[in-house]
Here is the input.
Amino acid sequence: MEEVIVQVDNLSKSFGSLEVIRDVSFTVGRGEVLGIIGPSGSGKSTMLRCITQLERVSGGSISICGKELVRDGVYADKKRLHEIGLQVGLVFQNFNLFPHFSVLRNITEAQVHVLGRSNFQAQERGRELLAKMGLLEKKSAYPCELSGGQQQRVSIARALALDPQVLFFDEPTSALDPELTGEILKVIRELAAERMTMVVVTHEMAFARDLSDRIIFMDGGVIVEQGRAQDVINNPQQERTRAFLRRFQA
Here is the structure.
């Protein structure tokens, strides 16, 4: 039986009287890539922020690697939350790199302060990841000296440096010019080929179809449809899904 890395049950999130997510449930197995699509304001990014502890849920349960983050709206203790946080990596839309740190230091800082690695170990891992991203020659550069695509590759390397069990991407190409999008999609494809467990919120429909094992379509804070990637994109069962996807068809 496939090991479940992420389990979400009956998740809800409200901001005051505004209900942003309602009764959302799904799982992600080890080595699986889950694509999440839907219109702006459908709750996709908020859901990711809840799972990665950037927002507190209003109700429901979340488990990561078999450890309960929150159950029926009640959170685990701080020690458990920290342990779970180490299993999760998040790549933001807008890179979120430290502008006053070099590329290499952006990748080593958390390794030293969060994982307790020595500077030597952290730099060794940082150089290994920069080589993987095709950016080793940029290790001494600063974020402002890089293209958007290069900055996003550094932020992916930074997330991988903490050895997470699951990597979340929140619209990883939305801040990029179209010609830079391809280099990020290539990196994510390579990670998928290595069986990295990933959850990818994206507006790139062809990418979602080709990369994902399964796809969730969200609208109005609920899951409208989910299933095998090819099925959801090429043969959606719900009219709301069909209407959304028509916008992306030539």
